[in-house]
């Protein structure tokens, strides 16, 4: 995979097979709502004040700046579990030193509300959340498209989804990763946070390309014969048989890295048959590579060959990144939908584990790029 191809924006493959569905989506506070679910109960004692905030069309950083100006707390002394979208109505938890609590007594802002406060021992850190619940309203939906939407959601709920990184990682033109690559090649950048973000965009781009390759393999396993699979992937008859035999859409590979779903230790897939059974009951998932020195490594076989194909231009920079693994296959939880034919509105609700993107789910359902 040539990373320097000019002006070619990579588009990940969909896992579902259906034609694009017509619906209008606008990311605004009426039609897109995100509610963060905390990782744990707050203790009720300690030096930190936890704010449950509700923000409207503000990024998390903009919300922090508003709170900082009112309270006098330095931006670095706030804590949060995850960055939330700017567009839409979002609910999340923010931590700050409790000694500044009195400064918020008369807090009022048109786009930011403090709903509840708690006391806790720890500052909130990135990742200190279980996940997010989403509400999405689609408009201008005809009855025929409502039926298609319902079927796509049922299929996705049953099968799971390819856990791609969303457009937020890649910038307006989808090319943040190129900047990340230039930094890895030695380009200087003073802003440390921006530097880290651009390098993570590079890691995310490669993760998406590898995951898309695995989605392609899963489609091909269904569509092609054993003999054709042997030729395409240079694998043995036994390996091709194994791909054909797996009845889950997403095919596992011997020698790849797996992890307990949704969060747990990584390990190698040695006993493929028993791991396939665990995968079917959503106990484990396949783990894609976020390239770096500390990432758990695949050891053999087709998984390693495919990784080498995607990451070949990036291995030389491995020591410049920390690296890790991220689950490639995830599942929707608490899925609901309803259709109002009179208004032509179709509403979808679901919960996603942390690190998954609602926009990725929506693009998979609609089969089109949301913001083109």
UniProtKB/TrEMBL annotation:
GO cellular component, one term: cytosol
Tree of life domain: Bacteria
EC number: 5.4.99.27
BP terms from Gene Ontology: tRNA pseudouridine synthesis
Gene Ontology molecular function terms on file: RNA binding; tRNA pseudouridine(13) synthase activity
Pfam family, one: TruD
Sequence ranges assigned to domain TRUD in this UniProt record: 160-330
NCBIfam families the UniProt entry points to: PRK00984.1-3, tRNA_TruD_broad
Similarity annotation: Belongs to the pseudouridine synthase TruD family.
HAMAP family: TruD
Protein's UniProt name: tRNA pseudouridine synthase D
Taxonomic lineage: Bacteria, Pseudomonadati, Campylobacterota, Epsilonproteobacteria, Campylobacterales
């Amino acid at each position: 995979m040539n990373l320097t191809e000019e002006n070619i924006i990579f588009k990940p493959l969909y896992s579902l097979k259906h034609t694009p569905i017509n619906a209008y989506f606008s990311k605004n506070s009426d039609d897109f709502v995100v509610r963060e679910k905390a990782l744990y109960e707050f203790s009720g004692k300690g030096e930190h004040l936890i704010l449950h905030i509700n923000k409207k069309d503000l990024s998390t950083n903009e919300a922090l700046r508003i709170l900082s100006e009112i309270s006098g707390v330095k931006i670095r002394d706030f804590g949060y579990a995850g960055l939330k979208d700017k567009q839409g109505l979002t609910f999340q938890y923010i931590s700050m030193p409790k000694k500044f609590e009195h400064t918020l007594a008369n807090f009022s802002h048109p786009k930011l509300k403090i709903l509840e406060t708690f006391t806790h021992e720890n500052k909130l850190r990135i990742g200190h959340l279980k996940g997010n619940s989403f509400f999405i309203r689609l408009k201008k939906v005809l009855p025929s498209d409502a039926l298609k939407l319902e079927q796509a959601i049922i299929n996705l709920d049953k099968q799971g989804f390819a856990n791609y990184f969303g457009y937020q990682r890649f910038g307006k033109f989808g090319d943040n990763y190129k900047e990340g690559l230039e930094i890895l090649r030695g380009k200087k950048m003073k802003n440390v946070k921006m530097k880290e973000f651009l390098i993570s965009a590079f890691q995310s781009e490669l993760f998406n390309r590898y995951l898309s390759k695995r989605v392609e393999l899963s489609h091909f396993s269904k569509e092609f014969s054993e003999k054709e699979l042997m030729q395409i992937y240079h694998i043995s008859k036994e390996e091709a048989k194994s791909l054909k035999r797996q009845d889950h859409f997403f095919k596992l590979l011997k020698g790849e890295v797996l992890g307990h779903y949704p969060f747990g230790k990584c390990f190698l897939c040695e006993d493929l048959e028993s791991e396939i059974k665990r995968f079917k009951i959503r106990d484990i998932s396949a783990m894609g590579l976020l390239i770096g020195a500390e990432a758990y490594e695949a050891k053999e076989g087709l998984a390693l060959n495919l990784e080498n194909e995607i990451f070949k231009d990036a291995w030389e920079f491995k020591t410049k990144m920390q690296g890790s693994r991220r689950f490639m296959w995830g599942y929707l939880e608490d899925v609901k939908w309803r259709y109002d034919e009179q208004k032509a509105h179709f509403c979808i609700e679901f919960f996603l584990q942390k690190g998954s993107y609602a926009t990725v789910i929506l693009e998979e359902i609609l089969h089109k790029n949301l913001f083109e």
